[in-house]
Design a protein that fits this description.
Length: 208
């Protein structure tokens, strides 16, 4: 079967507004959606070939993957100017993840052994992609904290520059964390699949 997927990040931009005085506030808005691509087959080789042919591509690559996660960050911030200084009044970071997964459309009549292999593989693909989404949500929260922690600046224009710098560095760190996760998953893929299959065989009392 295929190796683990690649995530697909999209960059964010922060807008600016000046607000009345008030305590700093932060909001992370995270949404998630699912979409599916169809595969067909009656053997493991056929399913593998279908994943290689029909699976989604990642940004900057023509290679197909068994699953993918599209990630889009966004956000805005408001500022308060008083006493010749500007500080962050509120920050909102948004992150939307679209998880793309395979769906085996002609499973009916397949052997129990092949169904067991597919269940193990598809559950691992889903877990992997949902972890990509979780990494994105965690990074959005980290960016929010960093924005709110920025010290007051002489002007709101300067504060906007710092917020933009924080968001840019946050996206770069997000990409590093996602790439690191993919590297670890790729190394452990075979052992992980064997554990999943063995567990399913034990629970079912053995494949017949």
């Amino acid at each position: 079967m295929l190796s683990v997927s690649r995530y697909m990040p999209l960059l964010l931009g922060f807008s600016m507004a000046v607000a009345a005085c008030g305590p700093a506030a932060a909001t992370v808005i995270a949404t998630r959606s699912y979409s599916y691509f169809a595969i067909k087959g009656k053997t493991a080789d056929q399913l593998d070939q279908q994943l290689s042919t029909n699976g989604p591509t990642a940004s900057g690559s023509s290679a197909r993957h068994p699953g993918a996660t599209k990630i889009r960050f966004g956000g805005d911030a408001t500022y308060v100017q008083a006493g010749g200084r500007c500080r962050v009044a509120s920050a909102k970071v948004t992150v939307h993840t679209q998880i793309i997964l395979p769906r085996w459309t002609n499973r009916k009549g397949a052997s129990k052994q092949l169904s067991m292999i597919w269940d193990a593989l598809s559950s691992d693909i889903k877990r992997h992609e949902e972890r990509h989404a979780e990494i994105a949500r965690n990074q959005a929260r980290a960016m929010e904290r960093q924005i709110l922690a920025l010290p007051a600046q002489p002007s709101c224009e300067r504060m906007q520059e710092l917020v933009t710098d924080v968001s840019t560095r946050g996206i770069e760190e997000h990409d590093r964390l996602q790439a690191r996760f993919d590297r670890i998953e790729a190394v452990n893929f075979q052992n992980r699949m064997m554990r999943l299959l063995n567990n399913r065989i034990r629970i079912s009392g053995g494949a017949r």
